[in-house]
Amino acid sequence: MRQSDLGLGRQPGPGAPSAGPAGPDPDPPPPATDSDPSAPAPTLGTWTPRTAGWQHDSTPRRNLLTSGAADQLAALIARAADAPAGLVHFVEGDRLRSYGGHGLSVPWEEVADVRLEDTLAGILISSGQTLAIEDLGADPRVPAGSPVHRAGLTGAYLGHPIRDDDGVIVGVCCALDSEPRRWTDAHVAAVTDAAHVANMLITEQLARLEIDRQHRFLDAVVDSLHDGVIACDADGRIVLANARMHKLWGSGPFPVDLDEAADAGLTDAHGNPLRREDFALYRALRGERLRDEEVMLQLRGQRTHHYLIDAQPILGSDGRTVGAVQAVQDVTRRKRAERFRTCELAVVTALATAASVEAAGPRVLEAVVGTLGWTHAELWLVDDAAAVVRSAASWHSPLWQADIEVPGELAYGTGLAGRAWQAGKPLWIRDVGRPQSLISPATAAASQLHTALAVPVRNGLETLGVLVAFADTIEDPEDELVALMSGISAQIAQFIERRLVEDLQRQLARSKSEYLALVGHELRTPLTSIAAYTELLRDADAEGLVKDGPRLLEVIDRNATQLRHIINELLELSALDTGHASVRLTPVDLAQIVRESVERTRDAVSGEPVTIVDELPEHLVLPGDRERLRQVVDNLLSNAVKYSPDGGEIRVTLRAAGRTAELAVSDTGIGVSQDEREKMFTGLYRTSRARDRAIPGSGLGLTLSRAVVQRHHGSIELSEHEGPGTTVLVRLPLNAR
């Protein structure tokens, strides 16, 4: 019978034992590996265990025999049975898979994976006994679907089952010959011994597989934990750290032992370096058992993190400590949420007990800085008329030593607060020390601040102010912090609006009283005079009319004019407040308007002990209503003269300041007390000093002036004044809005 027909030749091929007198090759070369790119496609004559078929198979037993162990066992079987070829099979369900081969030249895929019922091994497994076939071509037991028939093979077969420690058949060892032959008892014994060897090898490999499986399960379980887990041996060397622990550690190199961890720059929340003895693992090595130990740690330059730590020693069979393990739970977010609630409560409390946002500002900012763990915070209020944000409050950590300079005001779109006002949305600046960070390089360098967050204080579409916080570290944007600051800003906006509503309610109540007083005094007085002098005229005779008539008519006319003036001012104020009065904004020269009003006032007070000094530019053009602005200037100058009954100096200045025009009218008269300043522009209010001195007036002048200025998108206030007297400051935008 030709060997080429059998496919099981006796010629020694690569890795095949020689059939000559010298016996089989004692050290067959190892099979090719997948690291060898020149290795030929696997066939039974040049078998390699790393075929494409089982490289992609995830069945654990494919890796039971490694490093050529299955091939070597197949070679031993062939030598022991004095046969040219040997095979090692494993049973996997209803399949028979080949794991080791020697001396075969048929394609590996022919025998690598076949149905158990189509194999001689299936007969062997069913009987549980050794199967010896002397002539494969003539034996009827060979299944019709066997690779023997498919490949047209002939020869002899000797197989023995491989059993595990429980006696269960897990595989088959077999010897193959290319020619029919009779198998001797020695051959059968040799294959049986090989099966025992395979059993021992399988047992060992199964044990390793089980250990590996348990390790994989343990690794998967430990890596799936939300807590970080780390363990060390008795010498402090790190032997285990799960994925969560690596993530908690950060991007730096993970330490190999406790000494290296101590050198990594870990500090507590106060910046004190952590010693090796302070580590929970080291304390556990000393026998401590820690439960829910609260620890605050940070790497240099990073935010403080809060952890709960459990740690305990690992004891050996003799009771000695062989290592330690700890579980680390990051509770930073929970702690932050608790601080957020505390911060919101502190802000609500501060706003509830404060009379103004300026008074509440420091406590609000202190709560913000403490909650964020940052360094400095500022509150700015928008002055829409002046197109600036003005500093209302600032606060920084008492531990911070660097100088933090806060300007008094910032123009619209300038600086961080001005840009946040312009943008109308939160701005997160990762590092104010970088170019184009909206903070001047000198300020950033002096303050040593880095990350900044600015959030507009908004009521609907209107920006009322800006809340700004700074950190001394570089931090990436966090939605939680932006949400917290936005919430606090909303509370501040509600507070401002509530105070405005309360002020309006007080003004309304006061206005009602003042209107009654006006009707009872300011209107009744001229009416009484008119009625009295009219009665005198009616009772006078012809001679009396000629003698006293002109004087009586002059008094009646003067009181009627005063009455008409008061009524006109009331109607004008009502029209301005309701928006019914027209204010036409056209380019006007405010300097010329002020100059003309000053000249008229000088003429009116000629001969009086009052001096008027003006500092006016040649021109100052802005959008305005000429007649309305003239009315404002006349009112201010009239008040300055009226409230300087003993004479003095009246100073009028006009200048451009940024994007606004500033008109200031100062006098050295009776002045206004601090607690009455805000009331001067509301309703018909007159100061107590004016009432005490019986200075005539209705109190409508400043109220009417404020209404006109507001219609010009400006502001009017009593500003700080040195010495006796008062300064009224009007700001008007230079550009149309």
Q: What's the arrangement of secondary structure elements?
A:
Blueprint: H1 3-6, H2 52-55, H3 69-80, E1 85-92, E2 95-102, H4 109-112, E3 113-115, H5 120-127, E4 131-133, H6 147-150, E5 156-163, E6 169-177, H7 185-224, E7 228-233, E8 238-241, H8 243-249, H9 258-262, E9 267-268, H10 280-285, E10 290-298, E11 305-315, E12 321-330, H11 332-353, H12 357-372, E13 376-383, E14 388-396, E15 409-411, H13 415-423, E16 427-429, H14 441-447, E17 452-459, E18 462-470, H15 479-539, H16 542-578, E19 586-589, H17 590-604, E20 610-615, E21 621-624, H18 626-642, E22 648-657, E23 660-667, H19 688-692, H20 701-711, E24 715-718, E25 726-733
Parallel strand pairs: 20-22
Antiparallel strand pairs: 1-2, 1-6, 2-3, 4-5, 5-6, 7-8, 7-12, 9-10, 10-11, 11-12, 13-14, 13-18, 14-15, 16-17, 17-18, 19-21, 22-23, 23-25, 24-25
Helix pairs in contact: 3-7, 11-12, 11-15, 15-16, 16-20, 17-18, 18-20
